[in-house]
Here is the input.
Amino acid sequence: MHNNHVGEMVFDDGDLCDLVMQGREPWHMPRVTVTQDVDLQGLISLVERPEQMVTWTFAEGSDIAIPQFDRMRQSRWFMPDQYRDMDIAAHVLDLCTTQEQLQRVGQELLMFQERGLLDLLRYLKYLVDVMRDNRVIWGVGRGSSVASYVLYLMGVHRIDSLYYDLDPGEFLR
Here is the structure.
């Protein structure tokens, strides 16, 4: 096992075989990246649950630039399908109770959409739900994120930016 130039752990077939032989199950890791020369059929014969192997991904070329790596990873948010497929705009709009809230949320959602950040909102919804379900305590809010009324409605922070008349452009500039 070694770390590539962006800090991702990369396993070769020997590393994976060692993990399996030690009784450690690599498919319980959030993401296992393997080199392209791994004999997957050979590994499948070593494990009792080969269907779990579909979570493994192949390492991209080692010459990938960090910005390209970031874009690639940001396009693959790890979250359950119910969040990945949800209409986050409709969800947030349903949380509104006044016309003023609807206007503000509509304005912010357009800003999120223009910047390609609707997947981020879906992931934040998933993250907040997981934290609530597991009784994890998180802060009241920090920095410019408190200027977003959408994030307030979703429970990411507790600062009502509409009440305090905070400019959403401070967050989404």
About this structure: Residues 2-74 form one domain.
